[in-house]
Amino acid sequence: MSGSIDYGNLMHRAMRSLIQEVLTDVADHGLPGAHHFFITFDTTHPETELADWLKDRYPSEMTVVMQHWYDNLEVGDTGFGITLNFGDAPEHMFIPYNAIKTFVDPSVEFGLRFETQVSDEDEDPTPPDPPRPLRDPSKVKTPSSKSENSGQEADVVRLDQFRK
Questions:
Q1: Residues 44-99: pLDDT tens digits?
Q2: Distance of alpha carbon 79 from alpha carbon 76, whole angstroms
Q3: pTM for the complete prediction?
């Protein structure tokens, strides 16, 4: 096990799993009510598949709207495929979950934004130094210890007294 818990990547994986679950439900039952999605994704991601003219028009990122007309929604473990209409030109595309930058459902004011992650290839091979303790653990006082300066009992503040 590594020296720390990577909460950022764990959270991103959970958020992408949520998107997969939502899209699976939409593939099975359609979009309910006024729900619709704005999905912004990285068009340069190596697993993204879209027409050349769309890659030319959107060289770094693209936002698609999944609302009134979409077809062939296929949800997988690594991403989803969908056919969308661009000016009466249906185009099939594949969007990997790892390429998604934002996922928004404005009908319920819900949104997810993924921060840029450094890939394993880009990381510095030398791990950062672990955080150093703020104080020497041998000098941490217990509630019953005497203060070195005053010779008096140390006050213990309980956070419960501030809760409402």
A1: 999 999 999 999 999 999 999 998 888 999 999 999 999 998 888 899 999 999 99
A2: 5
A3: 0.67
CA distance 7 to 112: 16
Q: Is there a contact between 132 and 8 (Cβ–Cβ < 8 Å)?
A: no
The torsion defined by the Cα of 124, 125, 131 and 132, in degrees rounded to 10, comes to -120
**Alpha-carbon distance values, 47 to 55, 114, 127, 129 (Å):** 13, 17, 28, 34
